[in-house]
Structures are given as C-alpha cells and as structure tokens.
User: Which sequence fits this backbone?
C-alpha cells in the first residue's frame, strides 16, 4: 500500500514538472517574439554569415538613414537538400543534386533556356552547321579554369572523348564520329548520323567542360572538379556539405553572393525547421506533410513547381506473368487505375495527373494523344475479352522505403475489377536485384524527363537498363531511331506524338502522376532559375538582407 | 599490469580479425551488386564485366578478404566507391564529430545520473526514489528521434539559442549531446542506485559512521568509491555505444558522424567503407574498454593486485 502511494505521488510529481516545463517554454516564447520584432531577426538570418565583409556591414548600417534604394545582399547563401554533392567528377554519375553544383562550378559548351527550349551560347559563343552531320563551334576567348589554365578547343575534345568512356555519359556522345580543333578557339564535330538532340546533350551539367591538365595533375576526382564556372569548390565534406567560393576571375557576369553552402539535411522535418530558423535560405524537397509550415510563415515562400518527373507502374511484358503479355489485360489495368485517388493518398494533392506517357511540359508531349480515363466497367469488359473474366493474379514489387502504405489504395482499386494484387515489398537492394534480372510482375518506377530522345530511349529501347516494362519491340526501336534523326522540328514533334500514342496503347506503363516539386525559400531569395527537369541554376542566387 | 595490457592488445587483434571477416562476408552475402551500384543501371554487360574484373569482384571472397587485410596491415582501409576517396580519409573526417558527441553525451548523462542515482539510493523506497525511477524510465522510453525534434523546436525554432543542426561551432554539440545523453541516463542512474544500495548496506560503512565520520564523507569517500566499478562499466559501454550507434540523432541534427556514414554506405553497398569504418570503430571501442578496465585498477586496489598477478 505504502509502495503504491509512493508511486502515485511520484507519477503526479513527474507530470506536474512536465506541465510546468511547457508553461515555461510558452512564456519564454513570447519574449523571443518581442526580441525578434525589435531587430534581431536579421541576426537570426545571418547566423552562418561570416562577418569579414566590412563593406557590406557598413552599407547595411547606412540603409536606414539613406533612402531605401540600395539593397545589400548576404555574403553567404545556404541551400539545404536531402543530399549534397556525392561525386566530384561530373561524368561519374547522372544525379540531379550533383548537377546543381556542377552547374555553378563548371560551364557547358552550350546551354538551354528550358522555358523556350532554345539552345543558347555558353562556352561556345556561336556555332554553325555546314551540313547535317557537321557542327563548328566558335569558343569564347580569354576564359580560364580555376587553376589558371586557359580554356581552349583541346579541352572540349578531351571532355567528350573522356565522356565516351564513362558508362553514365557514353550515350550522350555516341553519335560523334570525330572531333577536330581547327584552331585554339574553333572545334569541328562530325557525326556518324544525324542527331537532333546533340546540342541538348551538350547542355547536360554532366558534360561540363573539364580541364585536361588539372585531371592529369590532380587525378580523376579533384582534377575533374576544376572548371571554368562562377564558383570554385573550396570545401567538401562528403555526405554533409559542399562549400563553393566565388571565382573572382570568372569570365561572365560576377555573382553577388560570395559563398554558397549546399548542405545535406537528410531528415525532412529538420530541413524545414532550419529554413524556419533562417539557418538555411533555400530548402529543397519539402515533404507534402510539412508544406503548411512553410506557406504559413510570413518570412518564407512555398514554391510549387510542376516537374517532368513521371511516377508510373511498369508492367513487365517479358512473360514472367503470362497475363501481362496480353495487351487487353494491360489496357484493362490502365482503365482500372483511378489516378486522382492515388494523388490524394500519395501526395496530399501536390501532384498533377498525367495525360499519356510523356509528361506535359516536356518537348515532345502532345495533346492529341488519347490517354486512359478511369473506367472500371471498361476494364472488366477488356479482361473478359482477354479470357480473364475470373480475375488475374498479379504482384507489385517495390522497395519498402517508398510510399509506405499507399499501394493498398491501388490494391483496392484493382480488386474492384477482379485483379488480385499482391504487394511484394523488400529492401531496396533486393528489389534492385529483382529489377535487374527481370523477375517481377510489375513495379513502381519514376523518370525525370530531360531531352526527349535520351529519356524515351532509356525507358523503352530494347535492352536499356532503365527499361522497366522490358519492352523489346523492333517497331518501337525503329520509330525512336527515326525520330531522333529527323531534323525538321514539326515532323519530329509529330513523330513523338505517334510514339507516345503507340506506347500508351501498348499499355505497359500506367502513369500515376507527375510530381510537383515542393520547395521553400526565404522571401528575399532572388536569382534562382528553377527548371521543371530539376536542372536548377543557383549561380546567381542572392538573398537581400 | 603490462602483461595484462599486452594480453588484451593481442586479443584485440583477434577481435579485429573476427569482426572484419564477419562484416566482409555479410556484405558479400547481402543482396544487391556493388558493381551495378557503381556503374548505374544503363551500363552494358561488357562494361559490367570489365568493372567487375577491375574491382576484383570476380575473385573468390576469401582472396578478396586476404587482399583487404594485407592492405589493412599497411594502414590502408580501402577505397570508397560511393565518394571516390580513401576510406581512411573519409573515416578520419567523421571521427572528431563522433568523438565529441560521444564524449559530450557521456558527460551529460553522468552529470544527471550520478547525483540522481546516489540521491535515490540514499532515499530508497521513498517518493523521491520513485520520482527518479519514473524520470529515468521516461528518458529510456522516449525515442531519441522525438527528443531531438522537440529540442530543435524549443531551442532553435522558438528560442533561437542554437543552430538546428550541422557542426560549425562547439555550441552545436549541446542539443545532440542532450538527446543522446538523456537516453543513456536511465541505465546509468539505475546502475548507480543499485550499486550504491549494495555498498551502503556494508558493515564497514556502519563502522565508519560509528567512528564519527561525517555522513558526507562516508558517502563520498567510502561508499561511492566502492560503488564506482559498475558505474564506470555502464558509462564506458555507453560511450563506446555512441561511437557507432547514434545514427538517429546524427540524422536529426545532420551531425557529420561515423554512424550516418556507415548506414549510408550499407545502403549503397560501399563494402570497403562499411568494413573499414567498422574495423576502426571496433578498434577504438576495444581500446576504450581496455582503458576502462585499467581505470578499475585506480579505483580499486584489489583489482590492481589481480592485474599484477
């Protein structure tokens, strides 16, 4: 009895203390709010800014006395993402996050304005095409690499020759037959067949121009990190942060920000909190469940950027499950999928519906493609036509780390038309093995579309590593080859519309949704170019103080 | 004493041999293929075979392991495919943050649990004793993940006292240290309490009191010193535990420690990084446990006498 009483008192005491603790915090909270409004807000936002720029401090003080005409910018801008630079060598991977950094430290031969899909000059100030197979590039003069080496035609040739030997990049330069330096600032590239996408490939940050001498001297990693870009890689802690310092000898327009930190904050809530406290200026990949915190904060801005990332269910057509070799069964599954319901379950509405197998916003998308609508009756009819009136047994293989709990929605949708879907979840490496050897019925896959030929070839060409439907169709291969060789833009667009319709009718790729990128940023951020293909350009990022 | 140390160091070699082989074999048996991880899925079969041969994955496990150990003998922990750098360099870049966090967490947990445990032991069965018991259970039962986020929300977001993560100055260790430390407090408090209770019942303490030694002195000089052995053990184990096991806290606070490095390396099948880091952590752990054992000798002359045998 005595013991029970003691325990009871103890629990009461603990509870009281906890309660009084909460009381304390809310009191102190209101104090801080006052402090913040009385001027420490700027300090809070400056937490990681170094104070060695006397000039900016001075002008910062003068701002109130002068007219509000001069804007001062933070010396250091911090970008947070779920990952940071993982590889120094641009050619050793195709990862989007790494590309954000290569874009700042390096330059490509030509560049792309993704709003208009127009190829614009970068290291090549102009180019000409004497015939369909020949390109002559005239290079910028007086450009130097971070190590002081002058940039010449030899570096362009070296970069593309090196790329041809790298598994991640070889496809982008495979049509080049020969390269020749006509003089120090002129390169002639000859192709073995026409390729309408050559210049798009040259825009990839992974084909950034490298310095041969730096690679010979410093090796493949640190050597390849030497570029001609506006920023220089000065500190790199793998898996933690990347520090870039402005290259004051940059040949182009000099950015106002002196240092850019690209931090990995893996835990999504912590990443959003860091944005709220002002430690971070830009937070990429805000989880849908945390988006409210960003949009409600008056110092922050929530960006919803439609992407070209298509999330889809891939039906394996190689015969592991005989039902899936039947086109009618595949079409029935398309009709049985209610994408609207999936978008709500998966992304709390932060995604858009796909119309066909090429996302809207990608060059090559066409309105004319007849896509599927949710129609369970039609699905049932198609299944009985195909001889599966009694139902179909199917399994869906995916790594358990993606979208926990949402495939039950799909399971329920398909059950309505008599498809019994088994969810086969494993760790990512086991699932990866299944995908590698083709031993799965169906899986969930995603693809961020960049240039159209590169993307479709990866997804649908016979034998491609990213071909999850395992479609091996000579007709389709022929259509893809013909489309990329077509130099007339209109005819080429028509060719892709035809391919898209062909693949939609084939039915092996069930589009679930097109992802919306959710980013948060400080209200004062300017100068970032966000592109729907995730090739964002942070070079001219600036944060007004 | 020296013979004991030498004996323990020889045992350390056996431990490393065992640990390294186990890890190497497990990583080899685990599903997934590191070569595809390196090449990317669009690589051709020829490129795959070439890379496989280049990395030596076409040789039997035992030969690769032998090769690795030969390199280890020369101070080479291997090469990380994921980051394209030496594992030693990678590991050493993470070690300071890990050591700092482990040390600070141990200090936090000791500062809380030692007084709490002694206090509870002296008032055994009272309501104060129960309060400390509830507190330590609370510390043990609350997930680190939640504690970490709450600390960030209170002290970074609302009060603005600390950074919410990262490691740029020494203050940054405070919140993660409290997160890891409070998790450890439960065990150390309970150990201190029970160890003290055992000691204060001993006859020699009654004798000391009968001789008129002040209560403070009885506790500090006579009781605590004798109760210290299990406490040091518990603290030592927790310290070594935080060397590799603070993955969740490291994740929440973006702390650039070894735990996160190893977990990320396991996910991407970076065999050398996993093996190398675990060998290093095993080595450091064994050495720290050896130091803990040697500390016993300073605390307890009886043990010193045993070592000297």
Assistant:
């Amino acid at each position: 009895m005595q013991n029970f009483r003691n325990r009871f008192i103890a629990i009461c005491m603990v509870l009281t203390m906890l309660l009084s603790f909460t009381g304390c915090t809310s009191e102190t909270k209101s104090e801080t709010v006052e402090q913040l409004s009385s001027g420490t807000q700027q300090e809070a936002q400056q937490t990681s800014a170094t104070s060695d720029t006397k000039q900016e401090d001075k002008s910062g003080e003068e701002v109130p006395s002068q007219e509000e005409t001069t804007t001062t910018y933070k010396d250091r801008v911090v970008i947070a993402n779920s990952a940071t630079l993982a590889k120094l060598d641009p050619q050793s991977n195709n990862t989007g996050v790494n590309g954000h950094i290569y874009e700042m430290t390096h330059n490509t031969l030509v560049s792309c304005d993704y709003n208009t899909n127009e190829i614009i000059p970068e290291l090549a100030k102009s180019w000409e095409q004497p015939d369909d197979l020949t390109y002559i590039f005239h290079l910028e003069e007086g450009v130097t690499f971070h190590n002081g080496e002058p940039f010449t035609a030899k570096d362009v040739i070296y970069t593309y020759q090196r790329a041809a030997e790298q598994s991640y990049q070889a496809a982008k330069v495979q049509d080049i037959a020969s390269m020749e330096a006509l003089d120090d600032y002129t390169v002639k590239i000859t192709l073995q067949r026409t390729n309408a996408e050559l210049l798009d490939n040259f825009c990839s940050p992974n084909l950034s121009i490298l310095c041969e001498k730096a690679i010979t001297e410093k090796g493949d990693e640190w050597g390849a990190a030497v570029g001609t870009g506006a920023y220089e890689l000065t500190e790199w802690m793998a898996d933690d942060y990347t520090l870039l310092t402005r290259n004051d000898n940059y040949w182009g327009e000099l950015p106002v920000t002196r240092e850019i930190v690209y931090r990995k904050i893996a835990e999504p809530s912590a990443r959003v909190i860091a944005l709220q406290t002002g430690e971070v200026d830009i937070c990429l990949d805000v989880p849908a469940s945390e988006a409210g915190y960003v949009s409600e904060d008056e110092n922050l801005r929530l960006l919803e950027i439609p992407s070209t990332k298509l999330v889809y269910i891939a039906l394996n057509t190689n015969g592991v499950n005989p039902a899936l070799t039947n086109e009618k069964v595949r079409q029935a599954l398309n009709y049985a999928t209610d994408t609207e319901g999936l978008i709500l379950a998966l992304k709390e509405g932060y995604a858009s519906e796909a119309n066909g197998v090429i996302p809207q916003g990608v060059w090559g998308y066409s309105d004319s493609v007849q896509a599927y609508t949710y129609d369970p009756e039609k699905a049932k009819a198609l299944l009985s036509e195909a001889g599966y009136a009694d139902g179909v047994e199917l399994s869906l293989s995916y790594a358990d780390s993606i979208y926990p709990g949402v495939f039950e929605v799909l399971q329920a949708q398909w059950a309505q038309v008599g498809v019994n879907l088994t969810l086969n979840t494993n760790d990512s490496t086991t699932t990866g093995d299944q995908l590698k050897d083709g031993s799965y019925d169906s899986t969930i896959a995603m693809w961020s579309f960049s240039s159209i030929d590169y993307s479709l070839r990866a997804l649908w060409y016979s034998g491609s590593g990213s071909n999850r439907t395992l479609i091996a169709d000579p007709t389709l291969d022929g259509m893809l080859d013909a489309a990329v060789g077509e130099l007339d833009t209109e005819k080429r667009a028509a060719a892709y519309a035809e391919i898209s319709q062909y693949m939609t009718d084939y039915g092996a790729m069930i589009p679930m949704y097109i992802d919306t990128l959710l980013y948060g940023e400080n209200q004062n951020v300017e100068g970032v170019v966000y592109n729907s293909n995730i090739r964002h350009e942070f070079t001219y990022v600036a944060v007004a103080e | 004493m020296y013979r004991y140390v030498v004996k323990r160091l020889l045992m350390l070699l056996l431990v490393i041999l065992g640990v390294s082989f186990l890890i190497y074999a497990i990583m080899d048996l685990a599903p997934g293929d590191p070569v595809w991880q390196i090449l990317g899925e669009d690589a051709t079969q020829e490129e795959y075979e070439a890379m496989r041969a280049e990395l030596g994955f076409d040789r039997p496990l035992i030969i690769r392991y032998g090769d690795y150990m030969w390199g280890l003998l020369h101070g080479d922990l291997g090469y990380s495919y994921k980051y394209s750098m030496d594992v030693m360099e990678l590991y050493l870049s993470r070690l300071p943050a890990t050591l700092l966090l482990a040390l600070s967490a141990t200090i936090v947990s000791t500062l809380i649990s030692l007084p709490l445990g002694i206090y509870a032991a002296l008032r055994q069965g009272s309501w104060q004793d129960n309060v400390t018991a509830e507190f330590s259970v609370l510390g043990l039962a609350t997930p680190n993940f939640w504690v970490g986020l709450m600390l960030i929300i209170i002290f970074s977001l609302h009060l603005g006292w600390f950074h919410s993560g990262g490691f740029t100055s020494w203050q940054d260790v405070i919140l993660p240290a409290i997160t890891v430390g409070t998790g450890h407090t439960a065990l150390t408090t309970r150990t201190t309490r029970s160890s003290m209770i055992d000691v204060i019942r001993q006859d020699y303490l009654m004798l000391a009191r009968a001789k008129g030694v002040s209560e403070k002195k009885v506790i500090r000089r006579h009781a605590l010193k004798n109760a210290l052995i299990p406490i040091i053990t518990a603290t030592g184990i927790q310290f070594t535990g935080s060397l590799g096991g603070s993955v969740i806290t490291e994740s929440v606070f973006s702390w650039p420690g070894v735990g996160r490095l190893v977990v990320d390396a396991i996910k991407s099948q970076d065999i050398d990084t996993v093996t190398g880091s675990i060998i290093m952590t095993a080595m450091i752990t064994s050495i720290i446990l050896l130091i803990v054992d040697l500390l016993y000798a300073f605390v307890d002359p009886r043990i010193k006498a045993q070592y000297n045998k």
